[in-house]
Amino acid sequence: MSKNIVVLISGSGSNLQAIIDAVTNGRINGRIAAVFSNKADAYGLQRARKAGIHTVAINHQNFVDRLSFDQAMIAEIDRHQPDLVVLAGFMRILTPQFVRHYEGRLFNIHPSLLPKYKGLHTHQRALEAGDQHHGCTVHFVTEELDGGPLAVQGRVSIDKEDTVESLQQKVHRVEHQIYPLAVEWFCADRLKWTPEGIELDQRRLPAEGYQLSNG
Ligand code: GAR
């Protein structure tokens, strides 16, 4: 059965766009029921409207604390009965209550080869460490920031000439491959978080997740 997807963004929404495109061309067996942003001027909201998707902006600054914001978000998100909630550049730390509510159906994308470089400034940190590879990860969200089980990773090589900007662009291109792929597999009931771990087609994935080969 076709799945209901809700996407949360804070900014440009280029990953949202990649997922919209994969829904539009029929690759993902689902529909994006709504796109939420904590910022009313996020460019991603325009992308959603252009695709005819319902949008909701909820300003976190209007709430006294993190939990009341998250509770308001849960109430609004659940009106859309989501099978999958996708964090696509949603730059807010979520409460344990929010995470538990959507456990097993909450994805995040992070611009590093997790478990390396949780948190911010990942491209700079990979460059400063002299790493030869960098990349991005789609993972299921748990209460630990950037710490949930890994679903899909894509790698890029770091060249001598790379800067934070060039590396960010390289990683973004791979994000736009791995995020629609993870959503496609989830919506096809192929990718699951089970008590035994993350499974793709009933086979347990290694801890680093499925590795996209051409990344
Ligand atoms: C992406 O690079 C994503 O990995 C990152 O925000 C960017 C959003 O871009 N997410 C995080 O850093 C989460 N910790 P987009 O708005 O163009 O999709």
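^ glycinamide ribonucleotide complex. The domain at 1-102 is CATH 3.40.50.170 (Rossmann fold). Helices lie at 14-24, 43-50, 66-78, 96-101, 122-128, 164-187.
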